[in-house]
From TrEMBL:
<protein>
    <recommendedName>
        <fullName>Gamma-glutamyl-hercynylcysteine sulfoxide hydrolase</fullName>
        <ecNumber>3.5.1.118</ecNumber>
    </recommendedName>
</protein>
<keyword id="KW-0378">Hydrolase</keyword>
<keyword id="KW-0808">Transferase</keyword>
<dbReference type="InterPro" id="IPR032889">
    <property type="entry name" value="EgtC_Actinobacteria"/>
</dbReference>
<feature type="domain" description="Glutamine amidotransferase type-2">
    <location>
        <begin position="2"/>
        <end position="229"/>
    </location>
</feature>
<dbReference type="GO" id="GO:0016811">
    <property type="term" value="F:hydrolase activity, acting on carbon-nitrogen (but not peptide) bonds, in linear amides"/>
</dbReference>
<dbReference type="InterPro" id="IPR029055">
    <property type="entry name" value="Ntn_hydrolases_N"/>
</dbReference>
<dbReference type="InterPro" id="IPR052373">
    <property type="entry name" value="Gamma-glu_amide_hydrolase"/>
</dbReference>
<dbReference type="InterPro" id="IPR017808">
    <property type="entry name" value="EgtC"/>
</dbReference>
<keyword id="KW-0315">Glutamine amidotransferase</keyword>
<dbReference type="GO" id="GO:0016740">
    <property type="term" value="F:transferase activity"/>
</dbReference>
<comment type="pathway">
    <text>Amino-acid biosynthesis; ergothioneine biosynthesis.</text>
</comment>
<dbReference type="InterPro" id="IPR026869">
    <property type="entry name" value="EgtC-like"/>
</dbReference>
<dbReference type="Pfam" id="PF13230">
    <property type="entry name" value="GATase_4"/>
</dbReference>
<comment type="function">
    <text>Catalyzes the hydrolysis of the gamma-glutamyl amide bond of hercynyl-gamma-L-glutamyl-L-cysteine sulfoxide to produce hercynylcysteine sulfoxide, a step in the biosynthesis pathway of ergothioneine.</text>
</comment>
<dbReference type="InterPro" id="IPR017932">
    <property type="entry name" value="GATase_2_dom"/>
</dbReference>
<dbReference type="GO" id="GO:0052699">
    <property type="term" value="P:ergothioneine biosynthetic process"/>
</dbReference>
Length: 229
């Protein structure tokens, strides 16, 4: 399954979050440390960041470790809010840029780490790809991010095998769910990181328990349990 990372805080370089840390997304693209459902994440990558209120994305269907152009430019890309991911495509899903997180509705950037049976999702013609994550993102955007916890519980109940770790941000809020896979949080002096797995060995990383909704705002973090019926 994929690995994702979100940042909300002071303006920092994309490179400092994604490429420079010893076990950051670049390393996780070929040697993740906590990934249970795949060996590596070679099927693409995406970096989304807010430029003021505008979400901008750079995505590719090739492995992150080999992208010298991105590595050259990433130190100059700076933002206070970032959503990035490396992808391990679920068997049967297309390997294409449109299937690669982060997805956007023009306000939010969203990544899905997991798997869901598309039969439990409403049919859509506006998703970027037929990939399960793209269709799920389309549903979450249609329902609105205030409904994120409710949608995850609903879909999780409709498909008991689903894994639904979502990460989303809109420039002033960052939301994440744990439903079947790992997520860690790091409070830094200059902001908060949410990541599928720690990008270094800092003792301050905390694991988020499964089946939780995390909300990060400039005022701090809140966590709520996601309850089934
Ligand atoms: N199911 C999604 C895909 O195929 C996400 C996979 C993942 O989390 N690795 O891209």
């Amino acid at each position: 399954m994929c690995r994702h990372l979100g940042w909300l805080g002071r303006e920092v370089s994309v490179s400092s979050l994604v490429l420079e840390p010893a076990y950051g997304l670049r390393t996780q693209s070929y040697a993740p440390r906590r990934q249970k459902y795949a060996l590596l994440n070679a099927d693409g990558w995406g970096v989304g960041f807010f430029d003021g209120a505008i979400p901008r994305r750079w995505r590719s269907a090739a492995p992150l470790w080999g992208d010298a152009s991105f590595a050259s430019v990433a130190p100059a890309l700076r933002s206070h809010c970032v959503v990035a991911a490396v992808r391990s495509a679920t068997v049967g899903m297309p390997i294409e840029v449109g299937a690669t997180a982060p997805f956007t509705d023009g306000h939010w950037l969203l990544s899905h780490n997991g798997i869901v049976d598309r039969h439990v999702l409403p049919a859509t013609s506006s998703a970027e790809s037929v990939c399960d994550s793209a269709v799920l993102a389309d549903l979450i955007f249609a329902r609105g991010l205030d409904e994120l916890g409710a949608v995850v519980v609903e879909i999780g109940n409709a498909d008991p095998h689903a894994r639904l770790n979502i990460l989303a941000a809109n420039g002033s809020r960052m939301l994440a769910t744990t439903w079947g896979d790992t997520l860690s949080v790091l409070h830094r002096d200059d902001g908060i990181v949410l990541a599928s797995e720690p990008y270094d060995d800092d003792a301050d990383w905390d694991e988020v328990p499964d089946r939780h909704l995390v909300e990060v705002t400039p005022d701090g973090i809140t966590m709520t349990v996601l309850k089934g019926p």
